[in-house]
Amino acid sequence: MKLWRRVCLLVLCAALLACGAAAAFPDVARGSWYEAAVSEMQADGLLTGFSDGSFRPGETVSAAQFVTIAARCAGLSPVSGQSAHWAAGTMEAALRAGWYDWDELPPTGERFDRPIPRKLAVKILMKALLPDVRGDYSTESAKIRDFSRLDGRYYEPVLAAYAAGVVVGDAQGNFRPDSGLSRAEASVLLLRARKLAGNTAQPPAAQPAVPAPAVTVKGGVSENGWLQVKGTQLCSAAGQPVALHGMSSHGIHWFGKFAASQAIANTAAYGANLFRVAMYTGEGGYLSNPAAVKAQAFATVDAAIANDMYVILDWHILSDGNPRDHQAEAVAFFTEAAARYHDSPAVLYEICNEPNGSADWTRDIKPYAEAVTAAIRAQSPRSIVLVGSSTWSQDLHLAAQSPLAAENVMYTLHFYAGTHGQALRGRIDAAMEAGLAVFVSEWGTSRADGSGGVFLEEARGWLDFLDARGISWANWSLCDKQETSAALRPGAPADRPWTQADLSESGQFVFSRF
Ligand code: DCB
Q1: Using a 6 Å cutoff on CB, does residue 475 contact ligand 1?
Q2: What does pTM read for this prediction?
Q3: Confidence (pLDDT) at 274
């Protein structure tokens, strides 16, 4: 070959490589459970993301998106479609290939942009990639705690998917056939199926390479409705176990801009279904300036509701360590709040952030909690009430010895990964054993003073522990303060969506766990 031809060829190769190596999606968190799957699929040209360069891992995948990616994985080419929808050709090809029936996704397209239910997604991916796998009815159905909710039409593909190890269920062992799935989950599932399909030497029951997402996005208020406590578990109105994951604000009277609509919407976009409104009572907060701080707290609650999130209204006692000192103010405040939100299933009431100092469970906190819970229930009988304990909400064992005689009450445990470990986890297990429902309404990746570290290994251990128990959590805190627990880097904007570069080391880790 002549030299100039070789040079041209080299230049051409370099150009092709440059095009092939697409930039990583800025909203795919490094180290997250889905990162490896998304990058591999992206590298293979199976995922393209949105025109603004984002991948939107927490967004619910639509039927058209799911079928399109499955078609790419299976090498199915589009034919001419029956509607003007962007995916009509691929949908028609999938329909003809028998991946789904016309009544499941009518070719007229009206359901193409709706969330695809998990049962249908699994049917499609099994038909597309692993059509010969079968699962034994009694072996596989025993693995699925909510098998009775699955319509018989989907038995075959779902049992096959469990047998192949493509689907493993959530932390409670549920399949949730009628829920949607996130784009991140869809990528992980499709990649697993694709790998199994391409490697017949691998035994079908092999462990999936990427760990299953534990309880993460479990839908917002419109999906789950009025929450209820059943035994020790927080459940949806329909009685399904639910986990809420989200951020706590810092003190709203200090960091109000990160407790306003755009910041809350940004957090929801990463997959959070919970926001905690930390309304300090002392330190210049509500007790110093009730009208303004209350108005701000309600505006924050409203913004969270507008994003379909559950929202904790937190009476953030801290320097005022004994809740009994301001019981009358708390009763008045929660009476007004519960009257205002009595018809909203979104609002949970955290009535004393962290009692400390000499505050005593039996003498102070329990009677306070009884009075405030009664005031809330007089306005809003079904609302969930979260109760703290002494030693900055670490004395769960004392609450367990003498819990409140009321339904839909949960007990908070707060931890900081650089300070607290096995001893507090042991208290959670003992409290659950005693029948208490536990809610981690505040935790940090730092030490207990909000700085130091970050302690991501410890935090990972803690979250895995919580996930395995279906325990909900809110992370401290959504602000750009110069402290390691802050989820945003100093100077991060509050008036536009965030990129990875706006998130601190803690924020990147925490957001990847929504
Ligand atoms: C809790 C509080 C929360 C506090 C964080 C981190 O307090 F609920 O308000 O947040 O944990 O300490 C910090 C902020 C700082 C701020 C400071 C005072 O991050 O920016 O300056 O509040 O408003 C705890 C929790 C546990 C323990 C101690 C505290 N503990 N504490 O285990 O010793 O002392 O505030």
Answers
A1: no
A2: 0.64
A3: 97
